[in-house]
Amino acid sequence: MFNSLSKAIHFLRSNGNTTALVYDDILGDTGVAKDSKTHIPSVNMGYWKDISQIDPEKIHIANQAMFKLVSEAAMFSEKDEKVVDIGCGFATNIKYCLDKYNIKNMAGLNISPFQTNWGNHFLKQEGLSSKAEIILGSATDMPFDDASIDRIISIEAAFHFDTRETFLKEVVRVLKHGGVLSLADLIICKPKNPFQKLFVKSIMKALYVPAQNVYDYEDYVKHLQKCGLEILHIEQLNKEVTIPFRKWFWNRPFSVFFKYNLLWSLTGLGFMFAKLDYLHVVARKK
Q1: Please, what are the domains in the chain?
Q2: What is the rounded average pLDDT of the residues 169-177?
Q3: With a threshold of 0.85, does the pTM exceed it?
Q4: Which residues pair with 231 in a beta bridge?
Q5: I need a labelling partner for 92 at 20 to 30 A (CA). Which of 47, 68, 107, 145 fits?
């Protein structure tokens, strides 16, 4: 606990926080929760639409449901030559996609060295390293050629990117003509009063969210269109994702919080009370 506390103090004092720092130094290999079979940390909030009871054991079912939602919407084809998962975490969604679809070549892109190494080890363990690898790199400066990617998927990562609009411009650059983006993304909405402002600042600090990424649904749509993406489907999923995840979080035993960074948890309380939205977007390069 004391080691965790010292990390939190360092984190709060630092002015140079990055997403990698959040996931490596603060969450480490603990994550939100670990799958009992794979022992892989969970790093998405889950899609709870068809899960009747919210309890601590259901997070991984919700995770898989989120993978299914985003991957099915990507409309994978046997003609696809390259599929990329941006902000791919520990490669759990990559494994899901390779198990479910006939994907020839898949890459993950992640800014976290810890998750990149861990994910590549996991893919090797699962016998999938010949079909997929995770590359260490930035979503706002992708190491891919122009018009070289058929499909891009991304789950709960874009709100971290500095900035989300820069990421969307990169998506347009690397996608082939007619290429598809399937994106699940958290929206931290503009604060309307001093209390909401305090909560938003807490989220920005705890989860490393650039100020330029704090805006409402209407602005999100404008950014998509401005970057040259044709919106095929857009759905607000606050009731299916954010609200049940908050319930799941509070339903866990209090002792679980001591496995994490105590001050990180406190700074993240804004996540529980700020105005949030959650989007699933399917868009095509014009």
Answers
A1: 2-285 (3.40.50.150)
A2: 98
A3: yes
A4: 283
A5: 145
